[in-house]
Amino acid sequence: MTKIISIANQKGGVGKTTTTINLATSLSAANRRVLLVDADPQGNASTGMGIEYNNRSPNLYDIISSGIFDESALKKTIVPNLDIITANTNLAASEIELASVERREFVISNILSKIKNYDYILIDCPPALGLLTINSLVASNSIIVPLQSEFFALEGISSLMNSVQLIKENYNPGLEVEGILLTMVDKRNSLSSLVEKDVREHFGDTVYETTIPRNVKISEAPSHGKPAILYDVNCSGSMAYISLAREIINKEGLKK
Fold first, then answer.
1. DSSP-based three-state secondary structure for 124
2. What is the pLDDT of residues 31-80, one digit of tens each?
3. 217: which residues sit within 8 A by CB, 6+ positions away?
4. SS3 for 31?
5. Domain locations in the chain as residue ranges
6. Can you identify the CATH homologous superfamily of domain 3-255?
């Protein structure tokens, strides 16, 4: 069975795309077959995986607009076992085009139902609760919420959880919260520790044990078109994402 996970948060700049890229790479390194779906019109996940802008056709927008799944949209990346469906700025138009489509919330779900032979499909969602994010959540078994360790991040998470509950009630009863991932954690900062304490008290075991530290190498890696794990496997950020992949795989094992 393929497990489909959306990485989503309506707040931008929380490490959503960084998490998608590096978690996908870490799962691939653990001999899992992974497909990364770039559902964000900014196309940052595609850039971060080293896919040139002029090499992104067919992409997610082409599939959505044509209504026909094209296998050539599954592109190889520099990471073994890791493929990608790319995105470019055209994808922004699909928010408008989907508005008039029948059963518009299920378009991405119908696309992904045609894709086999992957252990995990990770969807990098846009930083907004529009139709692309709703489509992604309707298509998913679960959601990972990257949460920046700062005060304002706590305000948005309850709104996101309410949206997840509504999607669960109306479109996808099987949708679960896979986990909340604390990102950009600075152990030297007392506020960072307070936020972590509050989140763990409120959400309990839903919060991953693994936290992602602030790390220069993670920030540098996308400009080289590489996941941090390929750019510098020994940096603290890479080690954290490897730990996160291990935690997710172990959780799967416990459920079985």
1. strand
2. 999 999 999 999 999 999 999 999 999 999 999 999 889 999 999 999 99
3. 228, 231, 232, 235, 237, 238
4. coil
5. 3-255
6. P-loop containing nucleotide triphosphate hydrolases (3.40.50.300)
